[in-house]
Amino acid sequence: MKLPIYMDNHATTPVDPRVLEAMLPYFTQTFGNAASRTHVFGREAAAAVERARKQIARLIHANPPEIVFTSGATESDNLAIKGVARMHRQEGKSRNHIVTLPTEHKAVLDSCRRLEKEGFEVSYLPVGADGLVDLGELGGAISEGTMLVSVMAANNEIGVLQPINEIGELCRERGVLFHSDAVQAIGKVPVDVQAMNVDLMSITAHKIYGPKGVGALYVRSGKPEVRLAPLIDGGGHELGMRSGTLNVPGIVGLGKACELCMQDIVEESRRLTALRDRLKDGIQSRLEGVHVNGSMEHRLPHNLNLSFEGVEGEALLTGLDGVAVSSGAACRSLASESSYVLRAMGMGEDRAQSSIRFGLGRFNTQEEVDEVIDRIVETVKGLREFSGFALRSQEQW
Ligand code: PLP
Predict the structure, then answer these.
(1) Does domain 17-260 have CATH number 3.40.50.300?
(2) 204 CA from centroid of ligand 1 (Å)
(3) Are 316 and 310 contacting, i.e. CB atoms less than 8 angstroms apart?
(4) 152: Cβ below 6 Å to ligand 1?
(5) Which residues of the chain, if any, have pLDDT below 50?
(6) Would the CB of 151 count as within 6 Å of ligand 1?
(7) Buried b vs exposed e over 359-397: b needs ≥16 C-beta within 10 Å?
(8) Euclidean distance between CA atoms 271 and 260, whole angstroms
């Protein structure tokens, strides 16, 4: 068994060797600037970018010109949300309101907070104990003044899948634009921008075995019309929506990563579901007081989020030797506060503090899952013994 075992694939994934192989020539051989159309170096780079655009579009059922390259999903989320809001204002439109969820990624929430400071209004709808939004409540929150709804396809901590197709249908009926951060869903569950009626969708390469620092925003062309105020001004790249010299090797990697997802999604999801369920059953059959956070029914195949009664998540992470898991999103793993996602689901501080997120991935094996079960069980037992732990009643959890 090779240690440490990596099981934090929601934070990031290793680059698939096939992706790396596709990228390598674009560093040293085909290194041209994709905007230099006057010579062969530039034209070859541009051709590679257009090939990648097609590979991405195919995976999500979009048209290639609807793919705008960015530096990752943080930028894509910012561009989608601030871009729509600021363009509405620039064009003198009266709509001023955004609807989102408190369980969204910080890239969405902090963009909304920024817009509130600029005078826009934002509604943060509550989610249920299972992490899911109530469609009736969402319908009720959309008003005459609403310009945008932003709801993620899959949550990065608890893996729950929101009813995206229904939300898209509702937004379309009500004439409101719909943005979805689909970073965690892409390549894991089918994502189809037509079926979802989504108008803007954020993608990043490093969650699907591509490189870090490259992503894309799907921007619907045609009806309804989506117009964005750019965040970055410059040479007018990407139809003026995102200036800056394109990261050709990164874009080639993102394209290849999407192609591989498309090839392998069915088999990989089946395999990861089986491994995830083995992990869950293995832990729960040997330890009492272990609770699943978030809907098990509407969930990504590779996600498991568990709370261990009587155990501090941080203590478990420290005690767990040789296993890389996390207590939640990587962007807050340096802070000691508990997960805002779990708290938004109505969870008490104790349970939120005792949670661990497992993110299985393409390169995990059954042997590794069995080793992680053993190590978790041993560490939890040790910590409980040390603290004189007594099981609580279900109601308290
Ligand atoms: N949205 C979600 C749901 C994520 O999980 C992440 C990953 O951290 C991001 C956005 C940010 O993506 P990136 O790291 O590409 O900026």
Answers:
(1) no
(2) 7
(3) no
(4) yes
(5) 333
(6) no
(7) bbbbebeeebbebbbebbbebbeebbeeeebeeeeeeee
(8) 16
Query: Tokens 């959890």 map to which residue?
Result: 397
Residue 77 Cα: closest atom of ligand 1:
10
**β-bridge pairing 303-308 and 67-70:** unpaired
pTM for the whole structure: 0.96
Ligand 1 atom nearest the C-alpha of 207 is: 7
Cβ neighbour number for residue 174 with a 10 Å cutoff: 15
Closest CA to ligand 1's atom 12: 73
75 and 206 Cβ atoms separated by less than 8 Å: no
Q: Which two tokens stand for residue 366?
A: 């059954």
Question: Could you give the CA distance from residue 262 to residue 61 in angstroms, rounded to a whole number?
Answer: 11
CA of 185 to the centre of ligand 1 (A): 11
CA 134–ligand 1 middle distance (angstroms): 24
The answer to whether 361 and 11 have CB atoms below 8 angstroms apart is: no
Q: Is 112 among the catalytic positions? A: no
Q: Which CATH architecture has domain 5-12+264-383?
A: Alpha-Beta Complex (3.90)
Q: Could you state, in order of their start, the residue ranges of all structural domains in the chain?
A: 5-12+264-383, 17-260
Render pLDDT for 382-395 as a digit per residue (tens, 0 to 9): 999 988 877 765 55
pLDDT, residue 330, reads 62
Cα(167) to centroid(ligand 1), Å: 21
Looking from the CA of residue 104, the nearest atom of ligand 1 is 3
* Position in ligand 1 atom list of the atom nearest CA 213: 15
Residue whose C-alpha is closest to residue 379's, from 298, 287, 252:
287
Distances (CA, A) of 167 to 122, 176, 280, 292, 360: 17, 11, 30, 25, 28
> What's 394's DSSP letter?
G
CB of 73 sitting under 6 A from ligand 1: yes
Q: Give the pLDDT confidence score for residue 397 in this predicted structure.
A: 61
pLDDT of residue 260: 98
